Structure of Alpha/beta hydrolase:
Amino acid sequence: MTAQELGFRHRFVPGVKGGPPVTLVLLHGTGGTEDDLISLGRELLPGAALLSPRGKVLENGMPRFFRRLAEGVFDQKDLALRTTELSRFVEAAKESYGLQDNTTIAVGYSNGANIAASVLLTVPGVFQGAVLLRAMVPFVPSAPPDLQGAAVLLAAGERDPIVETGNTDLLQSILDSAGAQVTLYRHPGGHELGHDDLLAARRWLAGWLGSHAQAAG
């Protein structure tokens, strides 16, 4: 399907026949593109379908998924609009690419992790799980959504100059109160991703999908 038809410029990599019935929705950080996280997705869950949109907002020429007013200060009106847009794109892509029966998991880094968290809190059910790499609290919901059955990995950097420890703790608390099964992994580094993040995410995905399959069976 084209970007015009689905609303986002994107890449789609079909899942391997006999592979895991999972779609990873890959959401890049500021300045990234739809190509950035494809290799990460392949390493995280070999054989899974990959859906990777490009953010439609430009900040000094760099793609993002929503506007910000300053570092860590989000344009809440634009965030709400873009959250709805992304949710509709994911649902339309599921239908267009025949992914309705797949488990859909967001894998977001930085700005991509932030909008993935916003989708979780705004439109429960779009994602059944999420790997949030260096995420911040997108907003504090007036009432917790129903995230029973959803699972989230929060991967935070202990020396992250952008995302403070307290912000990560607040996001964990918000997701916990909504009923999500939250796992917190703290990396000794900063905002950049390290090999340990990949290993932690792979272990988490394998463990959660294994228990998910057992419950379904």
In short: The domain at 3-216 is CATH 3.40.50.1820 (Rossmann fold). The helical segments are 3-6, 38-44, 76-96, 111-122, 165-177, 195-216. The first strand starts at residue 10 and ends at 13.
